[in-house]
Amino acid sequence: MRKVERLPLSPSTMAGLSALTEDVVGADDPRARAAALWKAKPTEAFSEIRTVLRRMASGRERCMYCEDNEGTDVEHFRPKSTYPEKTFSWPNYLLACSHCNSNHKRARFPLIDGEPALLDPSVDEPSLHLRLRPADGKYMAIGPKGEASIEVFDLNGDLRGRRLPHGRRDAFYKLQVLLIIYDNYVRSGNVAMSHHIKRAIINEPFAAVLGFLLELARRANPENALEPGVAQAILRHRVAGW
């Protein structure tokens, strides 16, 4: 999981969401009203919402939780069944795959001292709560938010068809090779191929793995953790700004 930037919606869409929220909050049964309005939600506004969420997502519009599958669902970070007043709140929307959203998180929303125990990648910095273990691609938790997020989002899920740790482990090595190739093309003056490789790096699933490589490159003696030339390529081409 990697931090994503919350982008703005158009004033008309924000006004529409605000009106729907007022309708829910003023209802005798906010939960039932939220459910009914969600089923009949305005097509144009939610077309924009999906478009903006896809722009916020990493790679090729990946799920903001697992970063592997395509993001297909407008996910309510705070479940609408428990927090009906957040049903039409833009800061409460994330892009998730159906596996993470419907199979794992569902309406689960643990709290710690009244605050969310789960990581919101549009608010939290996941790298402060999750540490990648390159040897097997699993996440290790740093504190209770990391623990809860690994469990609820199934971030170490290893079922057939998912196998997230395997994907992260492969990305750890694949991205290093791509970075060396990119550096070689740039240094040889092959602009076209360097452009294609850069795009491949940016679009690779598991964007958090690239973030982990950037972190390793900034450490003292990065060659102890990275292949020769990778740290130099990362710093030389300012990959952190891609």
Task: Walk me through what this model shows.
This protein has 242 residues and is mainly α. The protein folds into 2 domains: 11-152, no CATH class; 164-241, no CATH class. Helix content is 46%, strand content 8%. It contains 9 helices and 6 strands; from the N terminus they run αααββαββββααααα. It has helices at 11-25, 30-39, 43-56, 98-105, 144-152, 164-188, 191-203, 207-217, 230-236; strands at 73-76, 93-96, 111-112, 115-116, 130-133, 138-141. Strands 1-2 form a two-stranded antiparallel sheet. The protein has a two-stranded antiparallel ribbon with strand order 3-4. Strands 5-6 form a two-stranded antiparallel sheet. A hairpin with a 2-residue loop joins β3 and β4. The chain is globular. The model has no long low-confidence stretch (mean pLDDT 96).
How would you sum up this structure in a few lines?
The protein is 46% helix and 8% strand.
Could you outline the blueprint of secondary structure elements for this entry?
Layout: H1 11-25, H2 30-39, H3 43-56, E1 73-76, E2 93-96, H4 98-105, E3 111-112, E4 115-116, E5 130-133, E6 138-141, H5 144-152, H6 164-188, H7 191-203, H8 207-217, H9 230-236
Antiparallel strand pairs: 1-2, 3-4, 5-6
Question: How would you classify the helix and strand content by structural class?
Answer: mainly alpha
Head-to-tail CA distance between termini: 17 Å
Helix coverage percent? 40-55%
Which strands sit side by side, in order, in the main sheet? Answer: 1-2
In the predicted model, the low-confidence regions spanning at least 5 consecutive residues are: none
- Beta-strand segment tally: 6
What string gives the helices and strands in order? HHHEEHEEEEHHHHH
Work out the radius of gyration: 20 Å
Mean pLDDT: 96
The amount of beta strand, in percent, is: 5-15%
SS element count, helices: 9
Largest sheet: 2 strands, antiparallel
